[in-house]
Amino acid sequence: MNWKKLWISTIIVVIAGLGFYSFNQDDKNFELAKNLEIYYSLFRELNMFYVDEVNPEKLVKTSIDEMLKSLDPYTNFISEDQMEDFRFMTTGEYAGIGALIGNQNGKIVISEPYEGFPAQKFGLKAGDIILEVEGKSTENMSTEDVSNLLKGPAKRPVKIKLQRPGEKKPYEVDVIREKISIESVPYYGMIENNVAYIRLSNFTANCSEEVKKAYQELKKNNPGALVLDMRSNPGGLLQEAVKIVNMFVPRGSEIVSTRGKVKQWDKAYKATNTPLDTTIRIAVLTNSSSASASEIVAGAIQDLDRGLVIGSRTFGKGLVQTTRDLSYNTKLKVTTAKYYIPSGRCIQALDYSNRNEDGSVGHVPDSLISEFKTIKGRIVFDGGGIIPDIVVEPEQLSNLSAALLTNFMIFDFATKFSNENESIASPDEFNISGNIYGQFAQFLKDNNFEYESESEHLLKELEKAAKEEKYYSLAEKDFESLKGRLEPHLDKDLEVFSNEIKILLENEIVSRFYYQKGAIRSSIGEDKVIKTAIEKLNSDMAYNSYFEPGIIISMNKK
Q1: Is 111 a known active-site residue?
Q2: Are residues 311 and 193 located together in one domain of the fold?
């Protein structure tokens, strides 16, 4: 019996079993059995009579993915060939070369080699173009396909052919794969005014131990305050979030609870360990990409009045996923509960259970947003992520800076600069001098860089509308005149927006010589959110004023 017949036979048995079982169940179970039988009969007819040969595995996978997609973005089917990526997401570990790759104008490029791992050890640099892996051309390959080729058994070589910009001939290197473990704490250190700083980038297994180790090292400097930076942290393991909060709150404090359909799984997570420090001032930094476990930490710190949350409103993911084993080495990651932080609020911002007629998902309406109180009586709200105690919105980049990034001009210049310079000053001392900025301006001209300003874009839209409504001929001269005035002037705009462009250049160049740690260290000095945190943490009056009973932490209205 071939696998297709076996698969069909198995479905028949399952359907028959469900059909028999349904006689003793309520209408819901009958509907389930009925629709599964319809699905099987449809699939059988499709497989037998469709004009072209069908791929049963692909069809079933598509139907599963679309079915789960209709529920929420976090309920997913994990096929056998996706298990390696799933393990990496939960553990941060895989066997490979230790480099981030990306697609740049159709070419697969090394975006960032991780410090201390094979790619860096064997001389690969950011900007190197991957031409072949094990003799297979990367042309027309996706980054995912190339990533899979680079991964493999630890301590085994993988042959890579690369082209370094500025050099005529490609080069080949046999990189010995290693077990790669990405650090959850990419940087920690002391920053100005005796403030400790820890950057937490994700919540993989044992990340709480990394935070604990970092804090214990920093504690030797007798810091007066701590900044825990979780901006752009997408979350991860709930238990790790509980352990991190436990380090700074009294034993017995409830940190988070989960509630779902299966009541036996409902659970309250409390601080069960002896804390490291219950008195140090804390500022937790968040932004719109801080999600899930990040929101548990930020929300618990806020609800327990243990510290300040500073930055911008978090993502608003209050859903808990559980992984269930399926047959043939596959898994189902399914949303089983919502989590509730100490005040009793759930910060889930999107309502996936009640979709609009067009299938889109709406935000929790203001009419359903409820008021809660922190331990000291401050007023907070549910249904919209974590609203910071102190809102500091990120500054919008100019159109010029955005164009420089999306067209890889910053990246490519940093590649050229690092290939032409053996070293630079330390991250704290390096800055973009007038000479380097002049080189960058010339680099843009040599590469015929052009961009469109927002004003110019809007004028084009207005011109299009005017032509459609037949008004253009009446104001054609005015349009042409305005077009000339609004046309971007690169030299002028490079001067106007030089401060933000220099910061972008500085961070990218520093990362080439000092990798991720250096780039983070370099960015701290110009970071508006960190500056605000330091200012508040170092003022008794300013810090304590945020914990007065009755203070309302503004309800978010998106």
Answers
A1: no
A2: yes
